[in-house]
Design a protein that fits this description.
Layout: E1 3-7, E2 11-12, E3 18-25, E4 36-41, E5 48-53, E6 59-61, E7 69-74, E8 79-84, E9 93-101, E10 106-110, E11 114-118
Parallel strand pairs: 2-11
Antiparallel strand pairs: 1-3, 3-8, 4-5, 4-9, 5-6, 7-8, 9-10, 9-11
């Protein structure tokens, strides 16, 4: 059974960097053909795909967030990570990690999500 678990701060101040990690168990993040994504949902809004990292370690950020995101992995820990720079209150959301990508249209495993609030 594949399981994903997000971790990170629940509160971040405006202009700071949000750093999240996703621990994966039951599968190797280096397994061929799988992509590992970050997705968020602001309060009262829909899901927004933020980007992914492919099985070769290549990051694929969303064009709308490319200038403010960094997606990386730590294969020794079987984790992948998201950094979101210069956060604003509009970045307040529940952040999810998931296996899959918008290219396939299939996200088959999800973390439970972690709530992040941007506030001074």
């Amino acid at each position: 059974q594949v399981q994903l678990q997000e971790s990170g701060p629940g509160l971040v101040k405006p202009s700071q960097t949000l750093s999240l990690a996703c621990n994966v168990s039951g599968a190797f993040i280096t397994s061929s053909y799988y992509f590992w994504s970050w997705i968020r949902q602001p309060p009262g809004k829909g899901l927004e795909w933020m980007g992914a990292i492919g099985y070769s370690g290549t990051p694929f950020p969303s064009p709308s967030l490319k200038s403010r995101t960094s997606i990386s992995w730590d294969t020794a820990k079987n984790q992948f990570a998201l950094q979101l720079f210069s956060v604003t209150p509009e970045d307040t959301a529940t952040y999810y990690c998931a296996r899959g990508s918008p290219n396939t249209g299939n996200f088959d495993y999800w973390g439970q999500g972690t709530q992040v609030t941007v506030s001074s």
